[in-house]
Amino acid sequence: MKNTLYRSQAFRILGLVGLLSIAISSVASAASDDVTPTVREAMVKLSDEIARYIAADPDTKGQVAIGAFQGPSSSGAGARIVQSLKENLKSKCEIVDVGAAYTVSGRFMGQKLDGQFVTIIEAEIGDALGNTVQKLRRKVVTAIEEGLAFFGPSSVDLSAQPQAAKADKPASEKPESDSTAATEMLVSSIVKPETHLDANRKTRMNPADGSPYGLEIALKQADGKYHSLPITETDGVATVDLQADQIYAVRLFNDSARPVGCRLTIDGINTFALSLDANYRGKETIMELQPNAKFLIKGWHHTGDLSHEFRISNYADTPAAQFGVFDGVGMLTATFFETTAAQGYSATREFATAVGDEVEMRYRDGQSKFGKPIAAVSVRYVRPVAPTDLPLN
Q: Where is this region: Disordered (predicted)?
């Protein structure tokens, strides 16, 4: 289900360094790769493999532990893999933190494959002594928007058309395809990141100079108002300073004359992914941003009319360990999508004022369809000692 964000809500940020290519050796090798468009589909397949392996050993009592999935130091998106894997495994195995005979863990990396950018996820099952006992089939995720969420380029504008073949080239040399051009732009933006601060609003990050799309991180003040944070740029990496116990929001901009879709992720996890609403949970919900407007996203959708604020809180007080989020870099990414065949909207859904960490938000369900990603922006922050940006249960 796609949602139209209809006014206020939140975010935070840092840039990206490079792609990690590390091969995993294991006892048992996969015969071939599983190729899927999305991480969610990849995790469905991976959970089936794990469940079969666990079921074949009665001594496990159907229990398994999920460890971390490591990637580049500038990306915490391994949390997304853990979250999605647990979501798909919970009906097939008993997931425990301590005492399991087997633990599933792995790593992820980005690669160019046949002119296409793919996200590769490698996983293995280890025994109680940490020895690898089973290498699982490698997952190759092909959707470029997954790569944007996993590797978080500081700024990338994918809306530019591929350059036509130069006149001095032979006629047989065709211009590169949209897919190849997008792949080259994405890889370049990751390996050699650039920061595009808005000319008139230095707290705003844009995908490119003059882009109508952008994002800010805003800190909640004692009076309940939100103050935009300055962005620091170092070697093309955009960073904001967030401290423990601070509450923040993400401000999204659409200065164009037409609606645009936006998927907001933190450490690769969609801000609707932890919702108790079956329409959103485990799905890659895209918000529709209306033309010539800005939107303040204040938190993770929880249930019904309630959302939890984005908070930098103590590790011990959160479910961060469940999703493999440890000390290091936090990453927020806004991916913008072209809107195709807008079909109108259903009744507005109001998010009521609630108590504590629950905040007022306003959405309405939409019926618009979204096409290819056209731009992305990422901001990073260095986590304080053992914090997390995931919500409380």
A: 161-182
Q: What is the pLDDT of residue 266?
A: 85
Residues shown for the chain = 393
- What are the domain boundaries of the chain? 3-16+153-388, 34-144
CATH number listed for the domain at residues 34-144: 3.40.50
What lies within 8 Å, CB to CB, of 41 at 6+ separation is none
Mean pLDDT, range 269-283, rounded to an integer: 81
Buried b (16+ CB within 10 A) or exposed e, 227-263: ebbebbbeebbbbbebeeebbbbbbbbbbeeebbbbb
CB 74 within 8 A of CB 329: yes
In angstroms, rounded to a whole number, what is the distance separating the alpha carbons of residues 47 and 51?
6
pTM of the predicted model, to two decimals?
A: 0.77
Is the model's pLDDT at 226 over the cut of 90?
Answer: yes
Q: Which residue has the tokens 């920061």?
A: 195
